[in-house]
Amino acid sequence: xxxxxxxxxxxxxxxxxxxxxxIRVQADSAELDDKQGVAVYRGSVVITQxxxxxxxxxxxxxxxKQGDIEVVTSVGEPAYYEQQPSADKALVKAYxxxxxxxxPTERIVLIDQAKVIQEGNTFTGEKIVYDTQRQIVNAGRASxxxxxxxxxxxDMVIQPKKKTEQKAP
Length: 169
Known about the structure:
Oligomer: single chain
Shape: globular
Number of helices: 1
Helix content: under 10%
């Protein structure tokens, strides 16, 4: 039970208004080990809190001795993450066979068939590191043993900025 409630402390994952929202975990099964600080959810796992959503075939949550979330690891075909970074921004969507969220540094690591969609821009590659706080994406190669579909190069599609219409005098 403490692992489930500790997930609430991951305020950096969601909008400020999302922090007060309840966390919902849906899965076919759950294994909670409070002594080790590990919770494993299996079977079409869906975790939501406000605008935050994480899905996967298996999601593992680890926490430190103080009860703070250290890492959320989602594995799927693909695993999925979405978050609205602020009220004026669109959802950021991320995919990968493995998604790791490192709570202390507010970073997401996407491995194998990694993809991030942010404000119409798309980043794909073997491995993507996404800094959720600063909204910075780094894409590149992963170790060969950790990918099922090698991609020797990253692929980015960057949308042109919309120009504001100027009024006639």
